[in-house]
Amino acid sequence: MQNQRCHFLILFIQFLSIISFCQYIMPISGQDETNGVKKVDVGIILDLETSVAKVMHTCILLALEEYHAANRSAIRIVPHFRDSKKDDVEAASAAIYLLKDVQVHAIFGPQMSTQTDFVIDIGNKVKVPVISPATSPSLSVKENPYFIRAALPSSSQTKAIAAIVKNYDWREVVIIYEDSPFGTGIVPHLTDALLEISTLVSYRSVISPSANDDQILRELYKLNTMQTRVFVVHLQPFLASRLFLKAKEAGMMNNGYAWIITDVVTSVLDSVDPSVIESSMQGVLGVKPYFPRSHELNNFTKRWRERFRQEYPNMDQVELNVYGLWAYDSITVLAKAVQNVGATAIPEVKKPDAKENLSDLDALGTSELGSLLIDTLQNTSLKRGLSGDFRIIDGELQPSPYQIVNIIGKGERSIGFWTESDGISYKLTMNGKTAKSNNKQLGTIIWPGGSTIFPRGWEIPTSGKKLKVGVPVKGGLEQYIKVEIDSKTQAVSATGFCADVFKEVIQSMPYAVPYEFIPFPIAHSPTSQDYDDLVYKILSQEYDAVVGDVTILANRSKYVDFTLPFTESGISAVVPVRDDERKNAWIFLKPLKSELWVTTGAFFVFIGFVVWVLEHRVNKDFRGPKRKQVGMVFWFSFSTLVFAHKERVTSNLTRFVVIVWVFVVLVLTSSYTASLTSMLTVQQLQPTITDLNDLIKNGEYVGYQKGSFVEDILKRMKFESSKFRSYSTLEDYNDALSRGSKNGGVGAIVDELPYLRLFLNKYCRKYVMVGPTYKTAGFGFVFPKGSPMVPDVSRAVLKVMEGEFMNNIIQKWFGNETDCPEKNGMVITSDSLTLDSFKGLFLIAGVSAGSALLTFLLIFLHQNREIFATDDSIWQKLSALAKVFDEVRDNSNVKSEKHEANESQTATQLSATAAYPDILPNLASQSPEIRISDGLDASPAHEGFSTPEPGTPAHETITEANEERCYI
């Protein structure tokens, strides 16, 4: 009985399982709507003949299956695939069929931009969202409210391409693009991105999709005659592979060339013939959207490959690409939107009112579900989509990092990444941003031809317009510019400092600049042309540039543009010199500035006063009548100037002060002697005038260079035009200055610093430059207003000036300036010594003397502190202190001790004499002078800075042999 119950229970469980299985599979098949399963029809239009469409087809099937398996809701999306067959009309027909007959609520596709353009218009009419992977920037999301772009537009990669161009400092680029809306859509965006980095699109090469191989080859030969060697290719994969085959044939895949392909080829590189990649695309750079590898993506790739083999068993295996991942994420986003919107009910398509003779477009009706879906689809996201962070904002897929690859062998190798926020980097961080620790550099690149050195981006063209460069011909100062014309070939050549700098600058340019020199004569007649006329030749478009010693001026810059200057700037004057400084009767005062003389005298008095204070109470030499004491103050310190002081100092404080002061005097006298010697022995060159205004006052003539703007400067300085004389050579300058204004010459030459440096380097001992110097901008190269070459030439000028070349060219044309004693145009003079040079010495002397004086005062006040304890007034106390200070210091105790010591020493010596009588006669000569000191009234023992006196006989008063104790 129990077994029967168990058997019945098992049968019941099996019956329930069968019912549950049927309930599960019926909604998936979409065959039974009576059980509450809601179907949402979605149209999918693809070019199923292409490999990209087949990849997307498989991804869409897997996306729907995996979404339905993970979300067992009552809403099922039923896809309806249609093949557009690479034709715009077929795509439009497929869209009308899906909207009219199937009544789909959304459309995914088409792929091509031209197909999508028409389908979008239909979607706007029937209010059905059109989710398309078309990449043309001409398809506007803002102008089409029912258009959702499910792929990055081709314009989003333009800044990544521009970053590569900027990384290698290529200044000109050729764009090769397809003659179709797909190709032309990227050109304006790419041009703008390149202009932002100051790179020009030198040529746009348009290739027709129907072009044959001969037409492609002819276009490549045309490109090869130009100077630019950097090409950006935006073609469909099939047309791009043909282009590179012909480029290889034309010799344009060798060293010196750079090729960059857009993502339309890089993202589907596996669909390109491998033989074309290996033979004709080696070294090409490419950009493509980057999708991070993940565990989910790896598992999906395995499932996708199995399903792809099932769907297309006869097709060669292709790789999963970003378009397939975008399709997968787009369908997933659409399924979520349908589930959210259709949770309550699925609105049906609203048919138009029945009328006769309705066209197919009029009979489509409108989708109420589509109006609800578009609001969700325009702003949605998948945080962990297969393609990464899949975000759609305002109907546009948001940019992701771009990967930069280098085609090597049969495939590609990653060399870096680019993001709009951080630019180029070799690696990406975990959050998808570029790693800033990689110095913004790409990895190692193998360029066309197998070179690892990046191409400079240009070559000297075999044909093309040459830059017409005007150069001045003036017959003088040929060190700066000299023009020669070959008598046979009439070829023009230019040499000199300016010409050599220009040639080196052109060589340093990032692209080729062919040029030819055109001479412009500047004659000596008053009515001849000058430098302003030469500059204005550019304004009249006779010249494309001007090279020479042309100064940058404000009035000229109104009509032309100048590069950065390549010489120093300024206007000054050169005048003759006179040599009469050594005949000056007061030259002995010039070694020291007046403030140094005053400071030195003040310190002499101060030091004498300090010594008198310290020695007044204990030293007889510093006592006596007031006149004597005042004289001693001045005598003692000034006598140290020649070390002639004979007064003995007894105080240790005084000795400290005197030692420091003697050192200061030693330094001062040595410096004075050296400066005076230099002034008396070195030739002093003094200008005849020190100010240009003196020339105006004296009515002297002024010289300047012929054709120079200096004439206008002199007029603004109030010089009379009748006092002007123009010259062309350095020899003319020398002759005019030598003769002077009274003899047909000039009193001064006013010119720009470069010319004056050159003149003084040749005549350095005869002339001197006087101020002031009026600032100018220096020499620069001249170009038309707004010329794009100006920033490039300016950067090249900086590069040349910072290198060793500039030193070599200066040495070549101007020689060694150190050969002239008056280097830099200024004479060598021995300037007077200033107080600043001796501040440290005076500070040391002042601090030592002051500290000694302060120490003495503190001791003196301490010893006489009983005076402060009285009830006398302050004046009485000060008078008492003054009397004490003026008195002789009481040294009776010291004398007594000294006297006992002397007696003991004398007794010892007498007993020694008695024992050895022969020693006595020689006693005076063998020992120091011996006599008993009688205090301040007796002659002091000779020590310190004193001069010894002859000794007294031995039988007279005998003094101590040891030194007296010093008094403070």
Automatic annotation (TrEMBL):
Residues 933-968 are annotated as: Disordered. It holds the Pfam family ANF_receptor. The keyword Lipoprotein does not apply. Gene3D superfamilies: 1.10.287.70, 3.40.50.2300, Periplasmic binding protein-like II. The chain crosses the membrane at residues 7-26, 596-615, 656-674, 840-861. Residues 466-816 form the Ionotropic glutamate receptor C-terminal domain. The keyword Transmembrane helix applies. Coiled coil: none annotated. Glutamate-gated receptor that probably acts as non-selective cation channel. Glutamate-gated receptor that probably acts as a non-selective cation channel. May be involved in light-signal transduction and calcium homeostasis via the regulation of calcium influx into cells. Belongs to the glutamate-gated ion channel (TC 1.A.10.1) family. This is Glutamate receptor. The gene is GLR2.8_4.
